[in-house]
Amino acid sequence: MKSIFTTLFCLITFGVYAQTMAVKAITEDVKIDGKLDDAFWQTVQPSSDFWQNFPTDSLRAKYQTKVYMAYDDNNLYVGIRCEASGGAFITPSLKRDYRAGGSDNITLVVDSFDDLTNAFVFGLNPHGVRREALISNGGISYGRDWSDSWDNKWRGDAFMGDDFWTCEFAIPFKTLRYKDGGDKWNLNIYRFDSQSNEITTWARIPQNQTLINLAFLGEMRFEKPLKKSGGGVSLIPYVTSRMSQDFEADGKADFGFNAGGDAKIGLTSSLNLDLTVNPDFSQVEVDRQVTNLDRFEIFFPERRQFFLENADLFGNFGDSRINPFFSRRIGVARDTTEGVNIENAILAGARLSGRINKDWRVGLLSMQTAQDKENDLPSFNYTVLALQRRVFSRSNLGLIFVNKQDFDSFDSETTYNPFNRVIGLDYNIASEDGLWSGKAFLHKTFSPEEAGLGDDEWAHGFKIRYNKRTFSFGYEHQYVGNDFNAEVGFVPRKDFYRINPEASVRFYPTKGNVVEHSIDTDANFFWNPEVGKTDHSLSIGYRVNMKSTTRFGFRIINDYTYLLEDFDPTRTDSEPLPGGQGYSYTYMRASFDTDRRAVFSVGLNPTYGQFYNGERLGLGANLSYRFQPYGSISANINYNYISLPEPYATTSLFLIGPRLDITFTKSIFLTTFVQYNNQIDNVNINARFQWRFAPVSDFFIVYTDNYASNDFSVKNRAIVAKLTYWFNL
């Protein structure tokens, strides 16, 4: 009898039991004010019984959440009541797209595709601040499978009571992508409750999985099949005015005016056509600088709105460092570790993306850049075709073709190749139960004879990971040929073979203040076909998570680096270490993060030990103070003292980045930050004022200044004003 009860408990607790949400059809007008006082809500059957995910994952939530869902021909309506202990709700700021951790909020994960692979995210906090995001690839990893830069039209608001808060969502069906005539979607809802210090979910998710993992979803059942949402056409024009000065040239003020815009055309409820003419991305926040002690280019994510919807369909091929298509290569002719970009203006572009049916996704992108004689840049056309076919429950096969073509080279002596092409095949692995994940890929590039490359234009890789509650292990190998040349991709390293086994063990104490602690080990090896082993990194680490959300850990690492060429690891133009020899060095890295719910929070990452043939002392720190709900003051600090023997460098590298975020209201924001980086001799000041005067319609003023870090002499400055407006036709 005991074994029967144990089995039943495990079946329910570990997710075999699936939640179901009834979605009621209504005809009433809905007022979105967050109060749930419209009469029709009383006729809707709520769903509750949320599970804890933190601090444990085997108990029901201490303070429950009730969810009501309804719909009409145009919108999905969601009403939520969050019970609470009666303390103050934590809301760090009123700015859209807040981070969930360390505050009170609730988030919907809506798989309207019904494929357990892609989903839309919509969230609200007690002040009615909204956030939205896209999930791809099954939500296995926050890093590559989550994009919160996506923005779209929907409504939401909230109301705060003494021991509860309520909120309402109105999400237009035109914002979503789904199958006409369907009556079932997939759903999860997760809530951060800062008062009880709980993370709770509607459909239970084990602690070893991400909150966005789409293997753990319940069902939404619509009362009647959904009607076609209609084509829908949106126009988003913009106008900008700019003044800039380059003091390293003549220092003269340069004035400019620009106009252009985007169009979004819904061909079907699941297939969209996006058009852009003369796009301008001056309002995009500048990249966060980093101290680079590596030999290879650093990755900076795409932030431009046009490239974000269905970005996973184009950009998730290969691996994060063997990526055949990286959209930042379009419109940026050079993106180096020194932080120097040459803009290659985009004339126009089109993107067709979405679903043909439940099993097939298609993406076709074409962009044309302008000729730039001053920087010796011809006009390029970039065309990308991506196809994806679902196999089994959550896996898929993908095909990509990338073509970069020079159609009007103005100089026969140009150093740019007339074309560059990549074709690739990927198999993405995700098991139905979320335990197995991985990928296999094979890519080939094609370059003209002028490129002077050989026949080794191949790249391939395979990885697999098994993630159980108490342990996980994985294996990965990769190969990139010496002649693999993906000019529109992100492949900072070539001519290597790599293997990477890893494993971890997790413990979940039932008593005390420790929620989880774990031990993990990782081994990373690189070989060059001619030289042999060029790199390894062997590490073992220990990590602890506390009930207070405080976290700490440490890791011991042994690295080996064989320098094929002379290299200065400080990147300060000092005497380089000689190539043709190997360096083995051992060091320790630690981490400590305080409770993010506190008004003042700290994150520390010290490093100490050997570095090539010398020593390194490093400290990374993040300090944050919030004055809720109107904003925060924070600072990112990175210090590295590197001591190498004579005649090589001994230097101190500073990267200091104070930041001020002020949210005057839910529609008026000011972000100002400074980045002092003596490694690249630059001080950057960036201030961005944003007024969202209508849904997805903004007025921006952006001021940027750059100075030399040694004497603070001005390099360049610019101020831009930009106005955008979203019209629905």
Note the main attributes of this structure.
single chain, 51% strand, globular, 13-stranded mixed β-sheet, disordered N terminus, 729 residues, mainly beta, 26-stranded antiparallel β-sheet, Immunoglobulin-like
Notes on the protein architecture:
This protein is 3% helix and 51% strand. The N terminus is likely disordered. A hairpin with a 6-residue loop joins strand 35 and strand 36. It is built from 3 helices and 41 strands. The protein has a domain of 221 residues: Immunoglobulin-like. The strands form 3 sheets. It has a 26-stranded antiparallel β-sheet that branches. It is globular. It has 729 residues and is mainly beta.
Give a summary of the structure in a few sentences:
3% of the residues lie in helices and 51% in strands.
* Radius of gyration, whole Å: 26 Å
Straight-line N-to-C gap: 64 Å
Structure annotation, total helices: 3
Mean pLDDT: 90
Uncertain parts: 1-17, 335-339
Proportion in β-strands? over 45%
CATH architecture of the domain at 2-222: Sandwich
Query: The CATH topology of the domain at 2-222, please?
Result: Immunoglobulin-like
Query: Largest sheet, described in full?
Result: 26 strands, antiparallel
- Anisotropy-based shape: globular
The total count of strands amounts to: 41
**Portion of residues within helices:** under 10%
CATH class of the domain at 2-222: Mainly Beta
Structural class: mainly beta
